[in-house]
Design goal:
The protein is mainly α. The protein has 2 domains: 75 residues, Orthogonal Bundle (Rna Polymerase Sigma Factor, Chain: A), CATH 1.10.1740.10; 67 residues, Orthogonal Bundle (Arc Repressor Mutant, subunit A). The protein is built from 8 helices and no strands. Helix 1 packs parallel to helix 3, helix 5 packs across helix 8 and helix 6 packs across helix 8.
Length: 172
């Protein structure tokens, strides 16, 4: 093999090593570092290569093993991360069901009589006590209690009539 042929063969191997390294680490700088480390290791361990065997396979094996060793080393040296700082990266349960249930409740609320909606809003949403609600509406406390009871029962009935939202589950 001439000097020119050897250079051409080595250049071809380096191009292929770079491509493989980039596929492994997905970063050009890290890939270049990995190839450099591979070539340095190959030169230092040249006595282990058997002439006549596939040099490319030997170099790829070195590159792959260096990559795996680096991954394992990074895993061992991994920093502990506060869960709250990465909570936004964690998978979230789908919110579609909750959203549909909310829309159903809102629909049922809209079906209530105006006096029932007023009482339900003031007590359940705004947090006013029965007496405060009675004072705001200018009605007796007993009227607030009965309207609230009727409003809650009416919403339960309406939601029961409609049943649960009909969702189609999609397997992933």
């Amino acid at each position: 093999m001439t000097d020119g042929q050897l250079r051409q063969t080595l250049h071809l191997h380096v191009v292929r090593l770079r491509r493989y390294a980039h596929a492994l680490v997905r970063d050009a700088d890290q890939a270049e570092d990995l190839v450099q480390e591979c070539l340095a290791t190959a030169l230092a361990q040249a006595h282990r290569w058997t002439p006549g065997t596939d040099l490319r396979a030997w170099l790829f094996t070195i590159l792959h093993n260096l990559h795996i060793g680096g991954v394992r080393k990074r895993l061992r040296q991994a920093e502990h991360v506060d869960l709250e700082s990465v909570a936004h990266l964690l998978p979230q349960a789908p919110a579609q069901t909750q959203r549909l249930e909310w829309l159903e409740a809102l629909w049922a609320f809209e079906q209530l009589e105006p006096d029932q909606r007023e009482v339900l809003l003031l007590t359940a949403v705004e947090g006013f006590r029965y007496q405060e609600t009675a004072d705001i509406l200018g009605v007796p406390t007993g009227t607030v209690m009965s309207r609230l009871s009727r409003a809650r029962q009416r919403m339960r009935d309406l939601l029961a009539q409609r049943g649960k939202p009909n969702l189609r589950l999609v397997k992933s």
